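Recall the central idea of this unit: under ordinary conditions, the amino acid sequence of a chain determines the structure it adopts. In this exercise we apply that idea directly, starting from the sequence alone.
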Amino acid sequence: MKILAFDTSNKPLTVAVVEDGKCLARMDSSELKTHSVSLLPDIQESLETAGLSVNDIDRIAVADGPGSYTGVRIAVTVAKTLAFTLDKPLVGISSLRLLAADGTDDKLVVALEDARNDNAFAGAYIKKSGEVVNVIEDQHISMSRLFEKLSNYPAEQIQFVNASEHLAELINEAMPKASVVLTKDSLPDAVKLAQIAENAEPVKDINAFVPTYLRLTQAEHDWIEKGHKEDGNISYVEEI
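Accordingly, the structure predicted from this sequence is:
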């Protein structure tokens, strides 16, 4: 199976073409330019490097959040457009699950995204024998509450990944025996995204597939503050 995978949910952009688990092409970039400018040219270059056309791809895989609101919207929109126009299966994978894939085997890997004000997007995973299994669901949570949820696990068996320097300080204070991998050392990997997506269930309705934000955007929050109805984890990436 040939899979085109990409993630723009964080500052780094990663694109890969993978066939049956083997990387045919990969591009990673952390240049200071917008993902909306970089993503499509990087996809095209990756396909050319792999010696394939976009029509040769069997499956599209995308990291669907949480993360940068704009970044996630860009990736999901491109993934939906490609899957719909090419009539290819589409798989969405949690950005936190992808980050956890870089964790240490047999550890409880807690993937983080700094959500400011001592909050985080967080999910806990066990990585074993190539599988990345969720044990604490992805959520927007205060770090103090997260530490409470992790209190039943031996701290020395916990590994936090993608921790900002501020979150690392909170972790070291609350759980000094836990290991911490900083954001600069926790780059997302589109090859691993493709490998995870190979055996994942494709989305049933491409038009209904939307980013996973786990928290309202500021615009949505302001909309509700003005008296409009709250619709939960709503999104404006809808029909293409």
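The radius of gyration is 18 Å.
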